[in-house]
Design brief:
Length: 148
């Protein structure tokens, strides 16, 4: 009886795919900069790449919040606030991991500004912004102005 040996081809194909994936990540820039388009209160498009601001969670573009019993478009307000922070300045983003970056405009940390001014909350990886969120809540800035 003849023994069957597994073909090395599937293993070689898997290795080739892994190598290609590793090369693609090595080619990604660690810093991107240029004019930015604000996608929503926590997302920018810079130099043709979409990045989320690290350390924050902002309301989505169509998200509504409540002012008492009345809904208001807090997501649109957060987006507009980030637009004001960016203005026509060049934005510089340091990539922390794919799609997530710390971004600055005019030297200001955009994630910190969004939390400090109450238009975003601290995300799972944003422990550095926790004090800013407490201050924004206490001062009832941004989203917290109309919060119960």
């Amino acid at each position: 009886m003849r023994r069957c040996r597994p073909s090395p081809i599937p293993a070689l194909l898997a290795l080739a795919v892994l190598c290609a994936a590793g090369t693609a990540r090595a080619d990604e820039p660690s810093v991107i900069e240029g004019p930015a388009e604000v996608v929503d209160g926590g997302t920018l498009a810079v130099d043709g790449r979409t990045v989320r601001l690290a350390g924050i969670v902002a309301p989505g573009p169509r998200q509504k919040c409540l002012d008492g019993n009345l809904p208001w478009l807090c997501g649109a307000a957060a987006r507009q606030y980030l637009r004001g922070l960016v203005g026509d300045q060049r934005v510089r983003c340091e990539m922390l991991r794919p799609g997530i970056a710390e971004c600055r405009a005019g030297g200001a940390d955009l994630g910190a500004a969004m939390v400090r001014d109450g238009w975003a909350v601290t995300g799972p990886d944003g422990e550095a912004y926790a004090g800013l969120e407490r201050e924004a809540r206490a001062a009832r800035r941004g989203l917290w102005e109309k919060a119960p």
